[in-house]
Amino acid sequence: MTQRTVVVVGGTGLAGRAVVEEALRRGDRVRAVSRHVPPAARQVVGAEYVAADALAPDAPDLLRAAFDGADTVVDTVNGQTPAAAKVLTAGAASIALAARDAGVGLTVVLSILNVDRGTAVGYYRTKLAQERVHQAGAVPSTVVRAAQFHDFFDTFFGSPTLTGALTRVGTVPYLRGGRFQPIDVTDVARAVVDAAQGPDATVDGDVRDEGEPGRRTISVAGPEEIAAADLARLWADAHGSRRIPVGVPLPGWGPFFASGAAVAPDARYGRVTYADWLARTAEASPA
Ligand SMILES: NC(=O)c1ccc[n+]([C@@H]2O[C@H](COP(=O)([O-])OP(=O)(O)OC[C@H]3O[C@@H](n4cnc5c(N)ncnc54)[C@H](OP(=O)(O)O)[C@@H]3O)[C@@H](O)[C@H]2O)c1
Q1: What whole-number distance in Å separates Cα of residue 180 and Cα of residue 227?
Q2: Pairing between strand 72-75 and 48-51?
Q3: Which of 10, 17, 5 lies closest to 42, judged by CA?
Q4: Over the stretch 204-242, which tens digit does the pLDDT of each residue have?
Q5: 80 alpha carbon – ligand 1 mean position (Å)
Q6: What's the distance, CA 240 to chain centroid?
Q7: In the chain, what are the domains?
Q8: In terms of pLDDT, which residue wins out, 170 or 123?
Q9: What is the rounded distance in angstroms from the CA atom of residue 80 to the CA atom of residue 165?
Q10: Interacting residues of 115 by C-beta distance below 8 A, sequence separation 6+
Q11: Which Pfam families does this entry report, sorted A to Z (predicted)?
């Protein structure tokens, strides 16, 4: 079998790096594209790194060169602030255009489980727009919608920037009423790399598979549904933290996560549980 070439735009990010590692493990030739090439010590051995800004005025040309010889382009870029989030829309348009011009056979875009049920949240509207840009493009496209990554919860439970005041008063703040089915990025990467094999590739496991080859949406979530309160307790135990889990309302995102939209019993694809992930990553917390 000839070796496939996979280009991962955003390949230096959390999910992108996992996709790079998984594709290399399967024997693909892999190129990671992002604005900054990481120092050698932080590169995945065997991957090629290319610097290109998907928002630069000449982005379609830069990206077309970066996509040279690619069978599949995977879009795992991210931007959280309104200015940075343009990479999800204007950036996606340049990626789709460059993929067409480079003769790429398939784009795969990483999105969010049930994102179409979260349109009250600006970021989710942007993610939906990103999906549509790829699916309206000339190149066949597969969307992989993933549940929240295990890492996502550190932003709330441990982050001094987002929930600083609450963590300082001795709590582990969690979203009151929230229900999740978190997934490990290594499981997300398996699904993305399966999907990257072709428009009608088999994604091996318990997934929701909608649409048709070329305009397909695959949804994946973790192995267990778990209440936000239990996630916070597991987090505090694993970190040896004496802070007390306390449920708080979360403006904007709260209704989505409390409505059951963040779980998918028909897409129990992931193998790694939150407890498994904590056992691997948690470090003792000072408080
Ligand atoms: N976190 C979750 O729980 C979750 C769940 C489901 C889906 N997702 C989706 O997964 C995707 C990846 O998320 P992540 O957390 O892995 O993101 P991340 O760690 O923030 O990585 C973002 C990547 O995009 C690159 N990038 C940003 N702006 C760029 C630009 N203008 N041009 C080229 N590259 C650019 C970054 O590298 P440089 O900064 O060097 O450019 C980096 O490689 C997102 O679209 C997110 O919506 C996340």
Answers
A1: 6
A2: unpaired
A3: 17
A4: 899 999 999 999 999 999 999 999 999 999 999 999 988
A5: 9
A6: 28
A7: 5-147+183-220 (3.40.50.720), 151-180+223-264+271-281 (3.90.25.10)
A8: 123
A9: 21
A10: 124, 127, 128, 131, 145
A11: NmrA
Nearest to 231 by CA among 170, 275, 168, 197: 275
Question: What CA dihedral angle connects 83, 87, 91 and 95, to 10 degrees?
Answer: 170
* Cβ–Cβ < 8 Å for 205, 253: no
Taking CB atoms and a 6 Å cutoff, what residues make up the pocket around ligand 1?
10, 12-16, 34-36, 53-55, 76-79, 87, 91, 110, 112, 127, 146, 148-149, 152
Helix (H) or strand (E) run with residue 276 in it: helix 274-281
**What is the reported pLDDT for 165?**
62
Which atom of ligand 1 is least distant from the CA of 11? 43
What pLDDT, on the 0 to 100 scale, is given for residue 272? 98
At 241, which helix (H) or strand (E)?
none
pLDDT at 157: 86
- Mean pLDDT, the chain, rounded, equals 94
Q: Is 54 helix (H, G, I), strand (E, B) or coil?
A: coil
Residues 231 and 8: their CA atoms lie apart, in Å, by 31
Q: What does DSSP assign to residue 163?
A: S
Structural contact between residues 216 and 142, judged by C-beta atoms closer than 8 angstroms: yes
pTM above 0.90?
yes
pLDDT in tens, 275-284: 999 999 987 6
